[in-house]
């Protein structure tokens, strides 16, 4: 096992996906709070706190998965990001956050 340098493993990175052209691992960026609701916020949604890297499978799941699976993912993301959201002016309750997803 290698050192993790103090980083917490993202639970939504299930396995590495490899790019066909390079055969190297890749991730997909996802705006956690969708830009479609940006008018509801006084602060930009294009901030670090609102971005997460997901494996391609989890990225599709968060967009297209079963409602309960998406809800579970969003609750876990909220637990990890609540403080970052508040510091970025994106304060929400867990229920508000899950409803936006």
Topology:
Elements: E1 17-18, E2 25-26, E3 28-31, E4 51-54, H1 56-64, H2 67-87, H3 94-100
Q: Any overview of this molecule?
A:
- With 101 residues, the protein is of the alpha+beta class.
- It has one domain.
- The chain is built from three helices and four strands, in the order ββββααα.
- A hairpin with a 6-residue loop joins strand 1 (17-18) and strand 2.
- Helix 1 (56-64) packs across helix 2 (67-87).
- The radius of gyration is 15 Å and the shape is globular.
What is this entry, summarized?
The chain has 101 residues and is an alpha+beta fold. It has 3 helices and 4 strands; from the N terminus they run ββββααα. The chain has helices at residues 56-64, 67-87, 94-100, and strands at 17-18, 25-26, 28-31, 51-54.
């Amino acid at each position: 096992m290698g050192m993790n340098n103090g980083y917490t493993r993202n639970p939504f990175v299930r396995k590495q996906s490899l790019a066909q052209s390079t055969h190297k691992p890749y991730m997909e960026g996802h705006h956690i709070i969708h830009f479609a609701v940006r008018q509801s916020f006084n602060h930009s949604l294009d901030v670090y706190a609102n971005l997460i890297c997901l494996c391609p499978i989890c990225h599709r799941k968060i967009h297209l998965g079963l409602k309960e699976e998406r809800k579970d993912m969003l609750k876990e993301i909220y637990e990890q990001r609540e403080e970052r959201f508040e510091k970025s002016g994106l304060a929400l309750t867990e229920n508000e956050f899950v409803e936006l997803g």
